[in-house]
# Entry
Amino acid sequence: MRLVLRALALGFAIATPMAAQMSAVPIQTTPLDPANIDRSVSACTDFYQFANGGWVKRNPVPAAFSRWGSFDQLSENNQSNLLTILRRTAASGNSQASEDLRKLGIYYSSCMDSAGAERAGAQPIAPYLARIAAIRNRAQVEAEVARLHAQGVSALFGFGAQQDLKNSTSVIAGVRQGGLSLPDRDYYLNSDKRYADIRANYADHLTKMFQLLGENSAQSAADAQRVIAIETGLARPAMTRVQLRDPNTNYHKMTVAELAQLTPGFNWPSFFAGEGRRDIATINVQNPVFMRSVDSLLTSVPLDDWKAYLRWKLVDGAAPSLSSAFVNEDFRFSSTLSGAKEMLPREKRCARATDNGLRDALGQAYVAQYFTPQAKQRALGMVRNLESVFHDRLQTLGWMSDTTKVQATGKLASFTNKIGYPDKWRDYSTLNIKPGHFLNNQVAVREYEGRRSLAKIGQPVDRTEWGMTPPTVNAYYNPSMNEIVFPAGIMQPPFFDPKADDAVNYGGMGSVIGHEMTHGFDDQGSQFDAQGNLRNWWSASDLEKFKRGTGLVSSQFDAYTVLDSVHVNGKLTLGENIADLGGLSIAYAALEKALTEKGRPPLIDGFTPEQRFFLAWAQIWRQNITPEAQRVRINTDSHSPGQWRANGPVSNMPEFAAAFGCKPGDPMVRDETVRPVIW
# Structure
């Protein structure tokens, strides 16, 4: 099972080349701009539209994006700042620059070398293709899978280091379901016309990619069908997104001997040796049924089919870094899922690639220029304030027994707070970045990261690690570490503004902080104890009451319609919806505490502090999104659409109804009999 990170939001970016100048995206300078409000709609009828209708009307999705909202605007502003750093670093040629800065400059410059990419064509992957062509037996297929994994290509299944869910101080090996190229298993198995059309488009995409590798039309079409057949075979035993949310369902720790019994045809000692860890003795198998099916497929599927599949996984991972023929076809198919109409400029693509690749080198340069120690202290102060409020709320919960309250309070007190950026940066001294084709540098980074990750197996957990880069506009909770993490990138308007009133900051950044804290007590996080171990710390009666409350949340969101007859999946989005409701409630209580201590300010733009709090909450979820991207998100994203993230939680809060004068029966006031009260 992968490390479980309960994030605030997920991105869906399509990055493609084409040189163009980029300017900073203006971010909101007025904490709450009255022009964003749609006064033709009552706050008690549709609060999202009331709070954001003006903004939504003026901000269509840019052609190169699949979604445009507060997260995206701020992310683009941060990307502009990263580009400033990278342009300067690439152009300076300063021999006195640090080694990390020098590597940043070379990495970014190699990505920007479009002429070199055109000259090279498919040549950068030619040695890998020759290796696949030379495969003569199953053992060589397995060896190639191991080599691709070492280069960052997760063919057939996923493999890597993971924190032991039931012994949070140790790192073990883990193998998980994988090997698919479409967003989810349903894209292979669902007979609905929408999915069938995507599969047909996918077959056409595979055919064109194989033709770019030099295959004729008949061979490329046949190879496309071979790949689809294998991936469909991998999709059948794969768990659903909802099943993947249950940590116990994903935990099957076993010895290598037991793994060999599960998959008798697979040579695990050879695979581990190929990964550089022949000493592995214990491993978590996320989905034993899936791995048994992999073993069977390796025996039953012809060798030529496997060679086609391996060629596809190789070119699919490399395509965005090859010549324009590969990049254009990669974008063409991606756009059918995202709805993006244009390619992003090459420099934006390269900035993202550098942020993902040399994450700590660029992150360190970013925070040195754009994030102050004072900002870190302000954020930490807000976190501690909300933790104090959450502590007090735990003591007064009417549905929880004193015994369970002691456990919950202890877990809250054990939270680790990470703000802005890591205390320890990665050491890139062993990473060789050099001028030349960008794909070579990407492979070097992937191999470096793979070695670094696998070296953790058998070692104590490093609790200084971060799961996001500092410029990221997001935040997360990690239950195995019992930590909440807030990168520097999100601590800016509209989430946090040092010039704004408390109501706006508590409705924005305060609710974000409360959201991540509540993840420690959502339907997933609540299964982990204060030390991060997967262990039940609840009394039976309290757990039953908790499940009744979460069931109300699930049913509430199941009823929300997104597109046509497509509804939100209440079970898939349950953890995020619980965190939204809990986070907003905690942040509101913190605001009320601050108003009591500081006194009530006058109305601003005609709104009370309580109204401004809820308006600030709604504005962070404003967005426009393409129908194509929305459909993918409904199937794969554990977060509800922005409209329902804004409306869903507030409709459960009497405080919202009081702030805007809403009455029972109004659409934004849920009946008490179905209103969840959890945290």
